[in-house]
Amino acid sequence: MLWLSKKKEFKKKSKPIIPSRKERDFVKDLQYMDHFWIKPLLTQDIIAEENRETFVDLVFSNLAEIESINSELSRALDQRQSEAYLVPNIGDIMLQHVGNFEPFVRYGANQVIGKFYFELEKKRNPRFAKFVEETERKPQSRRLELNGYLTKPTTRLGRYNLLLREILKRTPDDNSDKELIPQVMENITQYLIQVNADTGKSENKFNLEQIQTRLSFKTPAEFDCLQLQNPERQLLMKGRMKRKGNTSSESADVQVFLFDNYLVIAKIKYVDYLEIYRALRKPIPLELLSVHVSSISKREKRASSLLPYSKSPNSLNNVIPKQSTSDNFQPSKSNNLSIVFTHHGRRGASPITLYATSASNQQLWVKTIKGQQESLAKKRCVFSIIPLIKSHFTTSNRVNSTVTLDTNNKRFLIGTDQGVYVTNKDPETKKLAVSRVIHLDKVSQIEAMPESQILVLADKTLWSFPLDVLSPSSSSQVKRGRSISQNTAFFHVGECLSKTLVCVVRMNTLSATTIRVFEPVVMDESKKTKPMFSIRRLVRGGPVGLKAYKDLYLPGEASSISLLKSKMCISSAKEIGVVDMKTFGVQGMSCLQSKTSIGAHVSL
């Protein structure tokens, strides 16, 4: 028992020593930056007088606020230590002061900006560079560069929870710190989350502002499409790639910017230690961009040996041109580091091949681009895709057409190279079962007419089958169907003039295109032997027949048909013909002329 008591006493004794000592050291680091950096920069002739305060605000941000807050915390911890040799608890002190840690968030958000202007001034201003070198050599700096001190506030916030977690492990269950310290840790965790979020937003905004001033295009319209001032705009990735030339001396670095809407490839030059970018091509919309990693060949391996790489900075925040190590870096012979970017569309361009700095960098570019493309596709998607059948049909039995029979029970007709299939949901497993109901080869189009018949276009022949063909007990006579039209290119079923019409398109290279329009009619079995129902005027497919309605002849080749309320639209390679189904007048709508005739003749 004596050993346990001593161990417990040792833990209680060591508990307040760790945070109080660390807090004093942190405050001393803040005071060091104030005495040896901030005050000399504001009072001495190191930076132009009109720029001193602005520069100090950008680089050191609100360090004075953090110093004030943590000095009070340090004094409170020291005061608690002086009251008793064994400090009973510190949770109340931490909980009292943790609510004042908001300046840590503002400082963390501005840290990227401060580092950028510090490095830029060091290269532009020889007096400042000399001051930096002399100050960092002083004993008070403890051989630590200024950048090391500038990161201390951010790292300090993250280390609080590490210290408090160790203290919590050593705290007895009956101590108030068992309840207070977790509250403090939760508050600090929320600050850390806010720091990460605000830092990301601040860095993104700062980078977009830099691109806004340092990137140029051939025309203002190309720049405007990026919409860099849009609050929702994001710079997802940026970096250097190599553009291959005929020789190693002609190979050059290019800067690639991946925004949430466009990809930009730009040339690089330096002006007053700043990278200036000139767009190599038009911005590429991500919807029209494809990326491809080429397979490497022996010839490509030999050519790639002439392609050097540069280790120069790949960030907007790096403003100093460094000595290139291009001559010493060669692409790995076992990996092809190329990425082919293709801009599709009417305003697209030929593919351009760039080379990443490493295999991991290559994969990161491709993954980030495709990830953003998928994100854009989901946002703009007007319907969702639900896979119904995944592995039933093979490459030798391709699916060419589908028709919905019953959306509630998920019944579909599927036209394939080897026939027409129907799906039925298994009542027990709830899975879709697929069975072939029509044995025809080369099925290219199918259509189900409600309560009527099924039309199937197979090997340029249009067939009609009654709906009974879907029943497993249907007769062989029903399954054979009836031929409606030969040499058929395609057909269309739609509503026009309050009627259901079937438009069958027949093509012949030696004559005009024929569009025969059928109207479904109910068959009267008692009259089917009468002469008026000649086979030329009526095609039977069960209880409902197809009666020839009108014939249209076109000199061109029709590619599609659409039926409107009272008109038929016929699309061809050069124009769209509109046929008034009441008067059979024809008007052509061409992109080259407002009104033209497509030369259609209406036959009654």
TrEMBL record:
Tree of life domain: Eukaryota
Limits of the CNH domain: 396-604
Annotated DH domain residues: 23-198
Keyword line: Guanine-nucleotide releasing factor, Phosphoprotein
GO molecular function, one term: guanyl-nucleotide exchange factor activity
CDD domains: RhoGEF
Domain PH: 234-374
PROSITE patterns linked to this entry: CNH, DH_2, PH_DOMAIN
Matches recorded under Pfam families: CNH, PH_5, RhoGEF
Family matches, as InterPro entries: CNH_dom, DBL_dom_sf, DH_dom, PH-like_dom_sf, PH_5, PH_domain, Rho-type_GEFs
Protein name, as recorded: DH domain-containing protein
